[in-house]
Amino acid sequence: MTRSLGPMLDFFLREKGELVHINGMRQLAPIQDATNTIQMTDEKIIRAATPLNTGDIVDYRDERYLITSQVDQNEKSCRGKMRKCNQRLALNWNGQVKWFDAVVEARTFSTETGKVISMPEGNILITVQDNTDTRGITLSQRFYMTHQPFKVTGIDRTMNGIIQLSCTLDSINTAYDDVEHNIADRWKYEIAHTYALHIHQGTMAHVPLNETIPLNVSATDNGNEIAHPPITYTSSDPSVISVDQQGQVMGIALGQASITAKLTYHPAVQSTIEKRVVETGTHIYSIAITGNPILKTGQSTSYVSHIYDHGTEVFDQSVEWSLRNQDDSTPPTKGSMTASTGNSVTVKAGSSSGANNKALVLTATLVSDPSITIEKTISLKNLF
């Protein structure tokens, strides 16, 4: 007596099937290892009651697989071989970045001998699903994998459902590639943000006991000042000096503490100042520098220091000037001080176009109290 294949398959799926998602659709499918021997690649056999196709995506046990073989179909079921996607690749089309699950291997099998063939060093074979996006992949297109750059040297579209890419190691482009996040040419189409935060009262300042003074803080992105940046303030010793989230500093007890300002959403960007609480009536000097925050290649501009005591400008104090590269790189400095008269100085930007988007730091130091300093960041831009 012949038993119907349909009920037998239903029983098999119910008893042996595991929960999977095939192209996002939830169903039961029996899964077994493709071989009894241990391999470098994770290959499995999948059988399902619904149609399977080469290139289908299967989510199984929190891993993603790609059906890479031809599919054996009969009236009631389909069977195919799937391989675990061991990498996610970002491909960049003129600033539009798309991510793909891929099977990446450095060696493959010979269809003639059945033996493993090692690929030349620095070469890999990538298998991806054939879809609208992957059909746009072109020869010489670059991408990153495990922080190493590759480029496509060959494209095989002969097998329906999947595309195989032959790729070789490429060179890193430090100007454009986001190596950390494995995205080639990212900064060619996106703006790389370089944030900076400055407390404009130098590295040391005084606050009178039981009085409150504001911090003078600014933040920049690529040298351009940010309007109303979210900043978080902390004191190293709130029992000596307190600070609120508007940057108001109050002297609580005689002593000294550090006040740190951080960009709230980029906390690695920060600036610190030492604050000393002094008796009321003590001179409390501060300095401000006025002048253009942007200097173009080869041009000059003047900067003036204004000295204050308890917030009132005084004219019996003087400063010394110094200039350095913001990134603290060794000389030559990307600018120079060409003249200094009283509490004013003239700064000239260098003529090198390579200084574009770099910055200088102009420092004024109070002669009578060198602990009182102020810095001004000057962004450098190309003339044209």
UniProtKB/TrEMBL annotation:
Region of interest: Disordered: 325-352
SUPFAM superfamilies registered for this protein in UniProt: Invasin/intimin cell-adhesion fragments
InterPro entries: Invasin/intimin_cell_adhesion
Domain of life: Bacteria
Protein name, entry field: BIG2 domain-containing protein
